[in-house]
Write a structure and sequence with these properties.
1 helix; elongated; mainly beta; three-stranded antiparallel β-sheet
Length: about 80
């Protein structure tokens, strides 16, 4: 997906953590392939991308679960 973003463009990814880091218990996404903050950040060359947001965000309203949120701007 990142290769399709033009210079100055934005890449936005959201995934659901399969294991809740606060409890260590499986989430509803446990059997799904999801994006993680670590894997997304590792796949973006820092010389070509600015990470604006790269963090896990708990979903207290929706119950147990954590969203991995990545927002990156292509700089070259």
């Amino acid at each position: 997906m990142a290769s399709g973003v033009a210079p100055g463009g934005t890449l936005f990814l959201v995934g659901h953590r399969p294991i809740d880091p606060a409890t260590g218990k499986p989430t509803a996404a446990a059997n799904q392939v999801q994006v993680s903050v670590e894997s997304a950040a590792a796949g973006l060359d820092p010389s070509g991308w600015e990470l604006v947001v790269a963090e896990d965000r708990p979903r207290a309203v929706a119950g147990t679960g954590v969203d991995a949120v990545i927002l990156a701007k292509r700089v070259s």
